[in-house]
Design brief:
Layout: E1 5-11, H1 28-36, E2 38-40, E3 43-44, H2 50-59, H3 63-66, H4 85-91, E4 95-98, E5 115-116, H5 117-120, H6 126-134, E6 142-148, H7 183-212, E7 219-225, H8 240-243, E8 244-245, E9 247-250, E10 259-261, E11 265-266, H9 270-278, H10 292-295, E12 306-312, E13 316-323, E14 327-332, H11 348-355, E15 366-370, H12 388-404, H13 408-412, E16 422-423, E17 436-437, H14 438-442
Parallel strand pairs: 1-6, 1-7, 2-10, 3-11, 4-5, 4-6
Antiparallel strand pairs: 2-9, 3-8, 7-9, 12-13, 13-14, 14-15, 16-17
Length: 444
Amino acid sequence: MDKLNIIYIHSHDTGRYVQPYGHAIPTPNIQKLAETGVLFRQAFCANPTCSPSRASLLTGQWAHSCGMGGLANRGWSVPVPEHLIPHTLNQAGYVTVLAGFQHVVKDVNTAGYNRILAQENSELDTEERAVAFLAENHDEPFFLDVAFGETHRRAEGFAAQPEGEAKTDPRFVKPPAPFPDTAVTRQDMAEYIDSARTLDQKMGKVFDALDENSLADNTLVICTTDHGLAFPNMKCHLTDHGIGVMLIIRGPSGFDGGKVVDALVSQIDLFPTICELTGIEPPDWLQGTSVMPLIRGEAEAVREEVFAEVNYHCCYEPQRAVRTERWKYIRRYDEATTLAMSNCDNSITKTFMMARGWRERPVKSERLYNLVFDPDETNNLAKDERHEDVLTEMRSRLERWREETNDPLLKDGIMIPPETAVVNDPKDLSPGDLHYSAREFLGI
């Protein structure tokens, strides 16, 4: 077989809110991908904030291990860019290409891409760059990174309605699971749905280009997102609403047939999976595990638990979590008594929630949830004496992981930001409020 081509196609802030995961959100192109590929129902990011999530996927490391504690647009950059997967693929003879944005290094030229299509033609949209690249002659295998921002909130709200189609009617929309059914939350969700439909249209053009150029049979398509929706209690939170992500893979070697995988997987497992599929020796820094035993039917699980963390988003809010099939344990490592509002994007839903006391709701340093009886993670069992043994076990799982991965909070009590990093005051209401030098603000 010829060497495998790879497309890593991804979005901002989509969670699992697309059609293949059972939501009333028309995304027919992503649906078709799922029906002809493999849908992972229990896939999770390593960090429910933009840059750390992407850096973890692209390095195959947990966020604190790859050194990405915060956002690239707030002064963070992967300290060892050679660990990003384009560098490894380059050494194996791949042509590595960036069609959209990147959000992990200060200087895109250090990320390892042989070609940065925006530098070649800045007039084209992301999907147009990707389609044009796929129409070229390909003598060498390629890795094409296609990043879309349609489901990311903007100052004026979500993206406009999909091309040639009517807007979603908010009267007939169901808000995301954590929210009451009101005119405000329905309107916000309707606007998200339109952005997801737009995303689907653009992804569909890339998928169609694979067929049109006879590349589909020998191309692995990895379709995912960075983390949950940009709504309160979702993005930047360690519940499944924040760390649960869509993950659909289609291609040769068993990634076909509309199969569904219910086993736990992390996005850091994608790098070692690619290594196995391409015959590349896995770099020694990888912390994930290949999902191929699941695809070949050799195992029902490749991991007992997944981990996730938050360090810096707009402000410092250090947390760690471990999730098994049944239990979720979340631990905070600050003295906060309430949530940091600036770590939530502005929206009409945020305004609605704040007007009803969301800002004043207390937070706990430890949380334990039974995911069978409480899938929305609302009933904290950490103080329930009947679950002391489970709490002890989950604490041990988390602490073992922190020690094995050299969590900087264990040594320094804090993840030290680079000199260029800026933060909000946790008391701020909006991400757009005054920014401070992170080191000066934290007294480092």
